[in-house]
């Protein structure tokens, strides 16, 4: 493949419940630090969740912050950080040739719920409904807010893909670069989900909302006693470039997107389909031109629901075999489920393994589910390994949407 078709990651901006930049995020993953705590939410009171602690005024004025959305604020922070991290001469770059592609799980629920909660105090008098509501709730809002903040005039949109969205933002950015629709892509995913009580209420009534006397231990993928999802917010936006352009400006390269796949279960609203997940992983391997034996690390999607974890474990065993040497970990055990941000955020937390050869662990596993046993599931302590050349990232979502991204270590 020529350098015009090869797409690399040259910058990353992120915020998560346990870190607001890659160095901090990675360090907290290796040290086992959870970012999960308790918050108060409308109607339900105290719930377990993961919130970010970035400075929203670092790149925004107070007026813009009041007018915009939480998801937009996260996106603006991450986009600015990604540009700075890429060491790009942004001010001389043609802004019409920059595309913004952000995955998101849902958007508009937070703003609508807050407005209804507010006018309840005024006997539902709609005179007190915010005139900012419409631009806040349109589907392209988070990506559009980035264009306003940075003066980008190229294409922008969000990609609604449930919890597979973070990966799909990266995939779409890669595709637009290969098509030469843009020369630079800001791609990834964002989420503001913990600010909507409806998600908590729905998961609770479904029996899928995590609970624990110690919040930091509530997110327990693969553990026999897991009891559901920890709802979290976060964001990760990567600077994507064609390899030729990155080399021309001597950019640092985190990794090269080697392969990807997206498919659909077409079988249930929420129950995952391991056969389709298996097919998605196999398609990504084929896209990358490698075999299952070439993958060194799998970052699992596992959300700490019984059915979800078991389905993914079954799919992984079908693709990689019961006795595979691949190393397996999970990032949600640290930060909960950051929904639309999860794919990109969790992938980025693993990419430093190309340099340090350390696989971060999965925490909160006290009693491993027998159906989730793997030869090299990294539990409670990080593991140093001999080499890391290829990382596979799973990200699956409701309505049966599956996405897999494979990133390889860049070599000249």
What would you note in describing this structure?
By secondary structure, the chain is an alpha/beta fold. It folds into 2 domains: 241 residues, Thiolase/Chalcone synthase (Peroxisomal Thiolase, Chain A, domain 1), CATH 3.40.47.10; 150 residues, 3-Layer(aba) Sandwich (Peroxisomal Thiolase, Chain A, domain 1). Helices cover 33% and strands 22% of the residues. The protein has 14 helices and 15 strands. The protein has a 10-stranded mixed sheet with strand order 5-4-6-8-1-9-15-14-10-11, sandwiched between helices. Strands 2-3-7 form a 3-stranded mixed sheet.
Along the chain, the helix and strand elements come as: EHEEHHEHHHEHEHEEHEHEHEHHHEEEE
The outline comes out as globular
Name the helicity range. 25-40%
Query: What name does CATH use for the topology of the largest domain?
Result: Peroxisomal Thiolase, Chain A, domain 1
CATH superfamily of the largest domain: Thiolase/Chalcone synthase
Structural class, by secondary structure, is alpha/beta
| Number of helices, where a helix is a run of at least 4 consecutive DSSP H or I residues | 14
Arithmetic mean of pLDDT: 97
Low-confidence stretches: none
| CATH hierarchy, class of the largest domain | Alpha Beta
Query: At CATH's second level, what is the architecture of the largest domain?
Result: 3-Layer(aba) Sandwich
**Oligomerization status of the protein chains:** single chain
Distance N to C terminus: 13 Å
Q: Strand order, biggest sheet?
A: 5-4-6-8-1-9-15-14-10-11
């Amino acid at each position: 493949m020529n350098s015009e078709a090869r797409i690399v990651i040259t910058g990353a901006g992120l915020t998560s419940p346990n870190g607001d930049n890659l160095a901090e995020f990675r360090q907290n993953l290796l040290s086992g630090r959870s970012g999960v705590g308790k918050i108060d939410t409308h109607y339900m009171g105290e719930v377990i969740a993961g919130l970010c602690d970035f400075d929203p005024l670092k790149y925004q004025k107070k007026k813009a912050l009041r007018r915009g959305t939480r998801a937009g604020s996260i996106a603006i922070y991450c986009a600015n950080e990604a540009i700075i991290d890429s060491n790009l001469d942004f001010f001389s770059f043609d802004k019409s040739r920059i595309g913004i592609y952000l995955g998101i799980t849902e958007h508009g629920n937070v703003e609508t719920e807050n407005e209804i909660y507010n006018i309840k105090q005024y006997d539902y008098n709609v005179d007190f409904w915010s005139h900012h509501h419409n631009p806040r709730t349109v589907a392209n809002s988070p990506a559009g807010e980035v264009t306003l903040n940075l003066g980008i005039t190229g294409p922008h949109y969000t990609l609604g893909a449930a919890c597979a969205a973070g990966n799909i933002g990266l995939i779409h950015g890669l595709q637009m670069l290969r098509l030469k629709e843009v020369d630079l892509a800001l791609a990834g995913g964002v989420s503001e989900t913990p600010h909507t009580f409806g998600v908590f209420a729905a998961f609770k009534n479904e029996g899928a909302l995590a609970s624990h006397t110690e919040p930091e231990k509530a997110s327990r993928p693969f553990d026999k006693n897991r009891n559901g999802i920890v709802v979290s917010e976060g964001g990760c936006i990567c600077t994507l470039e064609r390899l030729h352009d990155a080399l021309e400006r001597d950019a640092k390269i985190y990794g090269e997107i080697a392969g990807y796949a997206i498919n659909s279960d077409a079988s249930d609203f929420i129950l995952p389909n391991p056969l389709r997940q298996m097919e998605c992983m196999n398609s990504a391997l084929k896209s990358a031109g490698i075999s299952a034996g070439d993958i060194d690390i799998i970052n699992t999607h596992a959300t700490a629901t019984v059915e979800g974890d078991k389905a993914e474990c079954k799919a992984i065993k079908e693709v990689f075999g019961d006795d595979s040497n691949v190393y397996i970990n999970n990032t949600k055990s640290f930060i909960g489920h950051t929904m639309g941000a999860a794919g990109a955020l969790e992938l980025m937390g693993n990419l430093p393994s190309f340099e340090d050869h350390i696989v971060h662990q999965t925490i909160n596993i006290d009693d491993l589910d027998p159906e989730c046993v793997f030869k090299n599931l990294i539990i409670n302590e990080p593991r140093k390994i001999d080499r890391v050349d290829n990382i596979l990232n799973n990200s699956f979502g409701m309505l049966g949407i599956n996405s897999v991204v494979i990133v390889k270590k860049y070599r000249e």
